[in-house]
Each structure stands twice: as structure tokens, then as C-alpha cells.
Amino acid sequence: MASLVLSAMGLHPRQSLVKVSNNKSVRNKKEGWYLRKTFFDSKRDRTRDHLMISNVASHQSPASVPERESCADHRNHAAWTSVKQERWEGELVVEGEIPSWLNGTYLRNGPGVWHIGEFNFRHLFDGYAMLVKVHFEKNGRLIAGHRQIETEAYKAAKKNKKLCYREFSVSPKPDNFLAYVGELAKLFSGASLTDNANNGIYKLGDGRIICLTETQKGSVIVDSDTLDTLGKFEYSDPLGGFIQSSHPIVTDDEFLTLLPDLLNPGYLVVRMEPGTNERKVIGRVNCRGGSAPGWVHSFTMTEHYVVVPEMPLRYSLQSLLKAEPSALYQFEWRPERKAFLHVVCKASGKIAASVEVPLYMVFHFINAYEEKDKDGRVTAVIADCCEHNADTTIIETLSLKNLRSFHGQDVLPDARVGRFTIPFDGSQFGKLETVMDPEEHGRGVDMCSINPAYLGKKYRYAYAIGAKRPCNFPNSLTKLDLVKQKAKNWCEEGIVPSEPLFVARPGATEEDDGVVISMISEKNGGAYVVLLDGSTFEEIARARFPFGLPYGFHGCWVPEN
Ligand SMILES: CC1=C(/C=C/C(C)=C/C=C/C(C)=C/C=C/C=C(C)/C=C/C=O)C(C)(C)CCC1
Ligand SMILES: [Fe+2]
């Protein structure tokens, strides 16, 4: 009987449910039951709790959860360990105080599962997408959850117990020559590419929540409350192509993105209005550096211009066609083809400037703005980014083998806050400078956010992950003061924090008046959400999940109403 009741509630009979009333318990939103919540008093307690977490309630029967093997090894950091179950929802106990104005849902996207049965993925970027939500209720309660995104790639892997689509670093192995020819045909049509939307997450102007990866078919609409996968975001335009930037620039009024053109090397700058699925071309940039476009994981814009990066790390058609990835997976480093930045006018689509710049290696641009003379004429565009010293080593540093084998060595390659200056006087060259001494943020910097009200405008603050050395991955949160060229850092032993997301206080007049939200994975297998004050950068609250959560990439804020 008891097991029937539990099944009806979507819980597996083996999962422990207790109706308790002490303050060490967490209420199950659905049924008024309580999930036993262990509070960590000491390191020993934490380890013990970690070993118990298979009892955490999930709405999914364990039978339908993909097998967990070595990835779920307790010796691995939670950040690089597949999540324990496909979905979960519950209330979190808050330590500290959540500001009463913080009312809405924080969503985070990122890899959740890095294996199919015995088969292990190779790279951080491969993992099947998982959403994490933390809903901040008006009354100060936190309802949290996580859930795998039901993409074609994930569902096919679960059903067939093998890799069925081409992920970032791994491709399905054709069984025979005929299958190989079939695979090639599918590659040319884009059919073999994954739709594993594990990277960006945005609230569109019309309220839809979209998750994205670099493949256009990897654009997926989800429900911010249930975390249900609602379906593919089907672009209704005839623009075609397979690839897109993982990071469109999304505001209440528009969705701007770049579509690399692999056949006729260049980029389309496209814009989509809220309420539509139709991208319209604003302009096109032809590559100046040869036969393949540079990788555009992200880009940036000012109030009037889109900044199109042409990195020396270029898509490799050869690698895309091969089943075995090359050293840089689907990319190749081509310094002899140089590096460029192009500036496209949003209104006319015309190229306002196109300059050669020093070599650079950037995943994430931070922001950009226009420099004007006394008559209000634009003299230059300034574009800031997290720059990896023109070195691609970071890509291999992010392989799972490297991330999972940290023994105190200082192996995270140095990164800096890079500032490009693109002059509007017809010069051929732009500048790339370091904004602050990289020691300020431990020579690690990436996964940045700003106050969205300052998008495209002169700004002062950015939030990012930074490094406390020695480390093999950024292990601190950093607030960058780009004017004073100083950073404030927040760190705790053994943590891996995801992108710090800045949420402005409604009605704020100061740029840093708000909170910073980040999900933290711990080396002992735990996870918690942390809130820092945007101004002092001190912790104001945290709430622990009842089990570990893997590292995630990007977040977004969905205000209530
Ligand atoms: C999925 C396929 C592809 C590409 C996917 C890519 C390029 C995903 C990239 C994700 C990135 C760049 C995440 C960045 C994280 C950076 C971190 C954590 C930096 C830390 C630094 O310290 C294609 C190759 C396009 C095609 C096949 C399918
Ligand atoms: Fe990203």
C-alpha cells in the first residue's frame, strides 16, 4: 500500500519520505510531505550525507534514469560528476536573508550527464543539458529543482543506449562503410549534429524561455516552472545553415545573433522580434582571414553597433567531416590568417569599421560601448572580453580527464580582462589591452555578467568566475571594477562556482545595486546556491541542495509577472 502511494506521488518506494516537523526538514511542495534534510556540521558529516543521497526524492523512477557508473564516483568533484537523477523538486532551507524584492526564478543551464551507460564523454562541453531552477517566492521561501532537457540527442542516447548524434568532442561510430557514407550525408544536411541545448538560456521579450547551443537545431523552449521541455524552437525563416552563436543578445525588444556561414566564409547578423520565430538579416560580414569563419561562441554590441569577432580559432570543415576529433575538436588555430573585429551598424547593416587586432582567444565577450567626441560623433567602439592570452590550451584544460584529475597542481591557463579599441577613423588596426592586473582575479576570468541595464553602454562593473591558485578550473567569484582596475573576490575551499548572474534591485540607481546569484558545486559532493551583495560582494544568503549538482554554464533571471 505504502509503495502504491509513493508511486502515485511519482516517488520510488525505496525513497525515504518522512512526515516531520522539526526545522531540519524540508517541505515537499506537492504533497505536504517532508524530505529529510541533513545539515552539514562538519566535513565528516558532509561525506556521510553524500553517501546517503540516493534516497533523495525524485519524480522519476530510478529505472528510467540512465545508469550511473564511474562518473558518479564519490571521489569526483560534484562539478564533474553526472547528476544523480533525471529530475527533482523540493524546498531549500535558507541560511542568511534573501532580499524581499528578489521575487522570480533563477534558471541555470549546463551539462548534467556525461555518459551513456559505460560510455563516458570526453569534454565538459559534451554533457547532456540539465536545467536548475531556484524560485524565490515573495515570502522568502526557495523552491528549487533540476531536470534534464529532453532533446532528441538525449532521448535517442537513452533509448538506444549509445551515442546517436555528434556532440562537441565525440561522434557516433558508424558500424560499417555504408553507415559511414550515410553519416557523411547526414553531416552535410546537419542531421547528424546534436540538439543538446546545454549552453545559453534566455527569456525572450515575449516571455518564452529558450535554451541554446552552437547548432541551430539545438534551440529548445522550456517551461521555467516545471522545467518541461516544450519543444524545438523552429526558426520560420529560410536562412538555413547549421551553426549559430551560443549567445544571442536578448532584450525585451529583440533577439540579435550571428550565424557563421561555413560555405561562403562570413557571418550573417540577424534580428528577431519578440513573438515571432523569424530572423531577419541586418547585414553580412565576409571573413578577411581565409576559408573558414572564426568561432563565435559569443559576441557583443553597443547601442548602435554589433561587434563581429573573427578569431584565429576557426571552424575546421575537415574536422567536422571526420569521425575522430582533432586536437582542437571541430576547430583549428590559424594565427597566420590573423584576427579581426568588424563593426556592423544595427540600423543600416553597413560595416562601420573592420580592423585587424592582435591574436585573441575568447569564449565570452563582456560588454561594449561607443566612445564619442565632444560633438557626439562616435570615434571608437570599445569591446571587453575574457581573453585567454591567445592560447587555446584552455580548451583541453576543460576535458573531463583533466578536470577530474586535480591534485593541487596549478594548471589553469592564465586569462585576463581584454579591452579592444576599434577606431572609427579608418585605421586598419585596433588595439587589445589588459584592463587590470590579472593577479587581481587570480589570472582566471570567464563566465561574466553585467547589470543588463548597462548593455551596450559605458559601464563599470562585471562579475565573473576567477581563480584562487593553485587550481585547474576557476574556483572563485570575482567582481571586476573596470574603472578602478580592481577586483573583489569571494571564495571557499574546494568549490567550483558557475557564472555569477547579476540581478538588479528594481528601482536601483547605482550600477551594482542588486544581488549576484551563483550555483556552487563542492569537492565533497555537495551543492548550494549562493547570493552575494552586488555592491559589497559579501555573502548574504545560501541554500543547500540535498545532493551534488554538476558545474553549469549560464543562467538567466525570470522576474515574477
Ligand atoms: C555541440 C557541437 C558544436 C559545438 C559546441 C560548442 C562549441 C560548445 C561550447 C561551449 C562553451 C564554449 C562553453 C564555455 C565555457 C567556458 C568556460 C567554463 C571557461 C572557463 C575558463 O576559465 C559544434 C562544434 C559547433 C558542432 C558539433 C556539435
Ligand atoms: Fe557560453
TrEMBL record:
The entry lists its GO molecular-function terms as:
carotenoid dioxygenase activity; metal ion binding
Task: Output the GO biological process annotations, alphabetical, semicolon-separated.
Answer: carotene catabolic process
Q: Which cofactor does it need?
A: Fe(2+)
Q: Which residues bind Fe cation?
A: H247, H297, H364, H554
Cofactor binding, note field: Binds 1 Fe(2+) ion per subunit.
Q: Which UniProt keywords apply?
A: Dioxygenase, Iron, Metal-binding, Oxidoreductase
Q: Which GO terms describe its cellular component?
A: chloroplast
Which family, according to UniProt? Belongs to the carotenoid oxygenase family.
Q: Which PANTHER family does this entry report, sorted A to Z?
A: BETA-CAROTENE DIOXYGENASE, CAROTENOID ISOMEROOXYGENASE
Kindly provide the name given to this protein in its UniProt entry.
Answer: Uncharacterized protein
Supply the source organism for this entry.
Citrus x changshan-huyou
